Amino acid sequence: MICNSLEEVRENIDRIDSEIIRLIAERGTYVIQASQFKKDENSVKDTGRVEKVIAKVREKAEEYGADSDMIEALYREMISRFVNMEMSEFHKKLD
Question: Which domains does the chain have, with CATH numbers?
Answer without folding.
Answer: 6-94 (1.20.59.10)
